[in-house]
Amino acid sequence: MITCMSGPGDGLGIGVPARRKKKLILVVHGVGQLEPGETLGLLASGLEEAPGTETTAATHQVLEGTRFSHRKGPDLFACHTLRRKTEKSDDLFAEVYWADVAVMGIGFVQILLDLFQVILGLGHLVRESADHVYARKPMLHMTASIAVWLMHGPLAAINSVVLITAFVAMFMELSGYSHILTHDSTRFFWPTVLGFGLMFIAGFFYLRTGRYLIKHFFRSMVAISIALIAFTQILHRDLGSEDPLTFGVLEREVAATAPTKSDAPQTPDTAFFVPALTEQIPVTLALIGDWSRGLICDWVVVQSKSKSEGAKTRSEDGAKVEITDQRTHCVKRLVGIYALSMFLVLAQWLIWLVLLSVTTVLLFGHFFWHLQVRARGYHAPPSLAPVALSAMMMFWLLILSCIWAVMIFLYPDFGGHRALFISAFHPVYVNWLILILVLLVATWCSFGPELLHARKIPPERYFNEKTGAPRSPPRMIVADPIAMVIMACPPLLLIVMMILTLRTVDGSIMNATMIDEVDQLSREYFDELFLSAVLLGVTLYLLRDRIATGISIASDIINYMRVWKWEKDPKKRVYPQRDRIEGRFIVVAETLIRRHQPDEVIIVAHSQGTVIALDALRKSKGHFVDEQRAGRRWTLITMGSPYTHLYHNYFPGPYYDVPDRSDIYADRWINIFRIDDFIGTHIGHNTDWPVEVPVHCGGHSFYWVDPPVKDVLHREISPD
């Protein structure tokens, strides 16, 4: 153990006079706490010191109980301690630091990468919530699982491969090697090399990682890379051989002119019927490519008003061509890597349709199930699965739209006059819709809880005097208005994509004039989407500290529910981050109890730290033996706890009941909460287990320095 001592007084483990009462105060920080020792400092600053108090600060490197990395050296974590000695007491404060389990960067690029991890990490919350809430609804459970598999696997892999090929192709064009993209001898060679490279890299990470969703992503990357190689070889063979590889035969009607018998009016008895003529066309990859190029280039051909106004566009040599020739120009540009990526773009479009359909089915199934349960007079448990799944798709699409918007704006002629990559991230007005929804959600998250839930009821009247029940209804972490806005996104996207799909198959099905006007509007506002992406990036950069904290909060919750390998039986699942954090709590507590020999152990936890402390203190896990508890009083103080409000509602399996005295190692339990805290609220009714202490409004953060909270902590920790 490596110890750095500072301040007067003796060190840890030196004997103290017997007349002094010893206490051990374990501090467990909540989500979003990035710096070690910060929470310990906040608690210590809020407690008054008696005159003549000796203070000793130390930082210890504690050995973790289980190896969690592949390093040769030991796995250590920082444990900050603070010892305060007076004539009557000897208090040892120690922080259980666990924020480094999910390492979050503070740089701008690292924040963006962490944001991607959080978005994809929502899949863990979807599966965990669905597993507990839809335990008796196999169809809803299966639907949620299918959506997560599609999002984490094929969709994420196709987006990644298309992005990588786009960046490589753009680098070649900007570096003056555009002939590699179009020359007959190289245009099919380098996509093959790229496909093999992606396949080996994805295979390497697939073998290195153990997390099942990450393995699913890299497994899908390998499959997409193999598909890219196969498309390259088949297309190269079709163009260089008179005997192309056929996938079937397509029958197409051929127009025929029927001869007339006479000029006399035809009657049903004398009418001459001509049988329909058909021809058989072999279906090859080249034929599918020609058909796909036509569809994609139709998306970028300016119709309606632009045709009548005679708009013009520039060709490759700089000359202007009429807009009616733009489709032909677009088709000529979609060759080589663009033709190969085109197949992936169309596959992505189909996967999006399937994913949005599955999510819409889940949403409506969830609502109908709730209506049936309520009609029978029962309480339907809320589920985080529909909301988390909708949010995951919404933010995924928004971020990808910003990436493509910046790329295409900076290099507009890349990929056939934006054709390939406009289709890659869907029409612009869809992204405008998403952006508006995100702004509404952000506005509600900022002002909604304060407007609706900061009741005029004073804290002392929060509970009913007769029944002890709370007067304020439960405030879900995802309030109903927020959930409705988020869950409205997938059905709207599905409607828009279905309209576009029907339009590309048969324009006569829909109102072509209206759709063309919307298409034209989206192109006119394409630059505005780029500006939106730039403004969003600038906002992320200027508010990177707050955004990093918000990402850290989401990441901490996701990591606590992250499963290493999915098992059908929840009892057999392994939660590596949860087990590691819980192990740190046990190591710190056991080590300091053995060395300090306290008369009383006080655990002070905030937010996510309260769930960690309650999990570690469960008697069923048997972490603390009787020798560590004999003759000692254990007190648990929780602040802003999401145990009932979040975990009991969305993950009712392991958090179904509030632990009673016989379930946890605690003689007393005090729960402090603000009446407007949108994450942590009351845990039960106003009883002696736990003792509920409501305080005034103030949100979820900085409980440690709130005067009413400091009074309670000072009374419990330092009553002398």
Please tag this protein with its features:
disordered N terminus; elongated; alpha/beta; 720 residues
Description:
The chain is of the alpha/beta class and 720 residues long. Helix content is 53%, strand content 12%. It contains 24 helices and 13 strands. The strands form 3 sheets. The chain has a 9-stranded mixed β-sheet with strand order 1-3-4-5-2-10-11-12-13, sandwiched between helices. The chain has a two-stranded antiparallel sheet with strand order 6-7. Helix 2 packs parallel to helix 19 (544-560) and helix 14 runs antiparallel to helix 15. Residues 1-14, 266-273, 302-321, 415-428 and 506-512 have low confidence and may be disordered.
Which structural category fits the helices and strands? alpha/beta
Beta-strand percentage range? 5-15%
Measured between the Cα atoms of the first and last residue, the distance is 33 Å
The residue ranges in which pLDDT falls below 50 over 5 or more consecutive positions are 1-14, 266-273, 302-321, 415-428, 506-512
Helix content: 40-55%
Topology:
Elements: E1 2-6, E2 21-28, H1 38-46, E3 54-63, E4 76-85, E5 89-96, H2 108-133, H3 138-174, H4 178-182, H5 189-208, H6 212-240, E6 246-254, E7 277-284, H7 285-300, H8 305-309, E8 312-314, E9 320-322, H9 326-333, H10 337-375, H11 385-410, H12 414-417, H13 419-424, H14 428-453, H15 480-487, H16 489-505, H17 512-524, H18 526-542, H19 544-560, H20 576-596, E10 600-606, H21 608-616, H22 626-629, E11 633-639, H23 643-650, E12 668-674, E13 691-695, H24 707-717
Parallel strand pairs: 2-5, 2-10, 10-11, 11-12, 12-13
Antiparallel strand pairs: 1-3, 3-4, 4-5, 6-7, 8-9
